[in-house]
Prior knowledge:
There is one protein chain. The chain has helices spanning 2-14, 18-27, 29-32, 38-53, 57-64, 75-92, 95-111, 115-127, 131-144, 148-167, 174-184. It is mainly α and 192 residues long. Helix 5 (57-64) runs antiparallel to helix 6 and helix 8 runs antiparallel to helix 9. The two termini are 17 Å apart.
Amino acid sequence: AAILGIARALLLSLAGRPVSARHLVDDHRSAIGPGDGPLGQLARIVVAEASALTGDPVLAREVLAGIEGPENEFPSLRALAWRTRGSAEAARGDLGAAAEAAGESVEQARASGQTSLEALALHDLVRLGRPRDAMARLTALAREGGQSWLAHRFAAHAAWIWRLTVSTPLVPSTLTVRRWVAAGSSETTDSG
């Protein structure tokens, strides 16, 4: 039950429901055990993402400590942790660091063959105002099949954003950061 609960919590977080995701992790905390195994790490990633999306990037960074590093034997969790680090950096207001973290997530996901996670991290680059950095690879992923529905949607969004930025350069601002956090979270007090 804990495995399904944490997987559902991750999906809730990715769907912009961080408060519900955090509640679900809390509901399964006793069954998860220590945070070092894969289930514990995934739970920590969900808590970190929820923290970032609800305005607590400091807690997000603390919770992620030790998951992103090369000592982590689970490459897909390492890639997901780097993606979450990007959310924390964006919530902190550092879009450059957020883009660097998203880029690292892309590389980690690609190296471990996690194409869905790679597409998600590439889309983070698009949302951070760097569509050209992501568009070619998203298009390639869309053509490869497998994850085409996700990659097609993200590639189309990258192309649209890129067309906008050609005529009006995107300048990261406080408003951009607020939109980043708001786009990741459709709830603020939902109890699950």
